[in-house]
Amino acid sequence: MKIQLWERAGALVVRPEGELTEDAARDLQDEIGRERGDARDVILDLSAVDRVAVGALPVLFRIQQQARHGDGAMYVAGARDSARRLFEMTRVTENLRLVASAEEALAVRS
User: pTM higher than 0.90, yes or no?
Assistant: First the structure.
């Protein structure tokens, strides 16, 4: 899995590409931990993710918890239909901040 990260307006934008398996999600969590720096919020842009595995969900919640411990939030942006269906079937939509795009996440957090 390829991961792009950059800071924008005080947020760490993270764009993984490919399949988000449990192992890939752990790698993503590690990368965010190393690169977060002073960024308060994490924007997880899933627009280039083909599939999200059920096993990745607990890791996403750990990333969200880490953001909250830093007085921030995690936004899940650009989730494709298959990921949205998984989020709805597992009822995690109530706990994740889902937005259409990374740009929308940047706008709503300001």
Answer: yes
